[in-house]
Structures are given as structure tokens and as C-alpha cells.
């Protein structure tokens, strides 16, 4: 399946029972909404989707998210896979617009409405806009201290993480960061305390890292520590 298969794509509103249909029309910024299109299903029944940003001022030509959504009777079967995310979009008049951080976070919050407790979101970090995250993870920076990990955590999708840094059997494609919702508050507490240990160990040794990575990750680590400490140690 490729993005060139335009004939099989339909507006999500035409299939209200599809999981991604619930995202269509959601506001993700001032006068900015999601326009969601559905593609075919893959071999395991997951729904391909693509999201555009739209407003009264027009719609960029590019999609902002291309991915898969899957639902099932068990939490682990409920997930969203962000295969592509475009941090820069082209308007019909040719202008290139960067996507603000607040809109990015709101988009992931919207995607997360299809993810219950115990479910997860996977997001690629091989694209140009994810260079800092990719480099940081290569250097063993905790996911919660990376830009992408922070987006997932702030969207309620980062109670804990798994880094898929290689493709299994060559089928999974790009490297991905997987962010989970905890099963319950006790599970969230256990994982949160583990994350605090990891983040504090990182801060203790961060001075050994490249200065550029330090500048990008230390503030994120400090913010995550403050948030997790207030929630689980306060």
C-alpha cells in the first residue's frame, strides 16, 4: 500500500464506525481542525488513515500524519502507528509552514482517543523532523527526555516507553518510539517511579554528552522529573 493508491481513500465521515472517524473535525489549534481520510485495511485488519490540517484559511496540500489504527477486545490490540509525520506543510500558494509544537501535541492527543488503558501509540523517528530524538536515543537518553517522548508523554501516551530501534524481519520499516498508557493508576505509579530513577541517572551523567544533545534533552528531563515527582512522590 502506498500513498499513490488514491482511489481507495474516502473521507472518514463516510464510515462513522471506523476508529479514525472519531478524530475527523477535532480542533487541534486556533481555527485548525483535523480532516481524516480512510484507506484500506492491512493483513491484520488495521485501518490505514491520513490526517490533514484544515482551517477557514485553507488546507495544506500535504497530509500531516499517515498511519494505521487497530482496535480489538484486549488493550494490547488497541494501537495507533504513526508511519509518517510531516513537521512542515506546503500551502496551496507554495508557502511552507512549520507545525507548532502545540498543534503537534494536540494531534497526538486526538490520536490517543482511540487508545484505552493498556494500549499504545508508535511513532517513527527516522524522518528529518525527528533527528534530535533519533540521535538522543542512539546515545541512550531516556525516551521521556527526547522531543518525541515528551510529545507522547504530554499527550497522555507516555506512562512508559519501548524503543524499536531496528526492524524485525525487515517489515516494520522506520525506527519507532512506542508510548503506552498504563493499565491503571498503580501500574502508572510503578512505571513512573522507574522512569524517575532512569531520568535522574541520566541527569547525573548528562555532562558527558555532546553539548547540543544536552541542550535539547536536559530541560525535557528536568520537566519530566518535576512532573513525575509531583505526581508520584508528592
Task: Considering the chains and any ligands shown, give keywords for the structure.
234 residues, alpha+beta, Aminopeptidase, nine-stranded mixed sheet, globular
Structural class of the helix and strand makeup? alpha+beta
- Low-pLDDT runs: none
Beta content comes to: 15-25%
Q: Strand count, sense and closure of the main sheet?
A: 9 strands, mixed
Which H/E pattern describes the elements? EEEEEEEEHEHHEEHH
Count of discrete domains: 1
Distance between the termini: 49 Å
Q: What would CATH call the homologous superfamily?
A: Gcn5-related N-acetyltransferase (GNAT)
Mean pLDDT: 91
How many beta strands in the DSSP annotation? 11
Q: Which value, in Å, is the CA radius of gyration?
A: 18 Å
- CATH-defined fold name: Aminopeptidase
Name given to the CATH architecture:
3-Layer(aba) Sandwich
General form? globular
Helical residue percent band: 25-40%
Number of helices: 5
Provide an overview of this structure.
This protein is α+β, with helices and mostly antiparallel strands and 234 residues long. The protein has one domain (6-183): Aminopeptidase, CATH 3.40.630. 30% of the residues lie in helices and 24% in strands. It has five helices and eleven strands. Strands 1, 2, 3, 4, 5, 6, 9, 10 and 11 form a nine-stranded mixed beta sheet that branches. It has a two-stranded antiparallel sheet with strand order 7-8. The longest helix has 22 residues, at 211-232. The protein is globular, with a radius of gyration of 18 Å.
Amino acid at each position: 500500500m502506498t500513498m499513490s493508491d488514491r482511489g481507495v481513500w474516502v473521507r472518514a465521515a463516510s464510515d462513522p464506525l471506523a476508529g479514525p472517524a472519531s478524530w475527523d473535525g477535532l480542533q487541534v489549534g486556533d481555527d485548525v481542525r483535523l480532516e481524516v481520510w480512510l484507506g484500506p485495511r492491512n493483513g491484520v485488519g488495521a485501518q490505514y488513515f491520513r490526517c490533514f490540517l484544515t482551517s477557514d484559511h485553507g488546507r495544506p496540500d500535504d497530509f500531516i500524519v499517515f498511519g494505521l489504527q487497530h482496535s480489538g477486545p484486549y488493550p494490547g490490540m488497541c494501537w495507533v502507528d504513526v508511519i509518517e509525520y510531516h513537521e512542515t506543510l506546503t500551502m496551496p500558494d507554495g508557502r511552507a509552514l512549520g507545525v507548532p509544537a502545540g498543534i503537534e501535541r494536540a494531534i497526538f492527543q486526538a490520536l490517543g482517543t482511540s487508545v484505552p488503558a493498556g494500549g499504545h501509540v508508535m511513532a517513527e523517528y527516522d524522518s528529518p523532523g525527528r533527528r534530535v530524538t533519533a540521535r538522543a536515543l542512539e546515545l541512550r537518553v531516556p525516551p521521556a527526555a527526547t522531543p518525541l517522548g515528551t510529545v507522547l508523554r504530554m499527550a497522555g501516551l507516555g506512562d512508559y516507553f519501548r524503543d524499536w530501534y531496528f526492524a524485525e524481519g525487515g517489515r516494520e520499516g522506520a525506527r519507532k518510539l512506542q508510548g503506552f498508557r498504563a493499565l491503571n493508576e498503580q501500574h502508572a505509579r510503578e512505571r513512573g517511579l522507574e522512569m524517575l530513577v532512569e531520568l535522574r541517572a541520566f541527569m547525573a551523567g548528562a555532562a558527558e554528552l555532546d553539548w547540543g544533545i544536552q541542550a535539547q534533552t536536559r530541560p525535557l528531563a528536568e520537566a519530566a522529573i518535576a512532573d513525575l515527582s509531583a505526581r508520584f512522590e508528592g
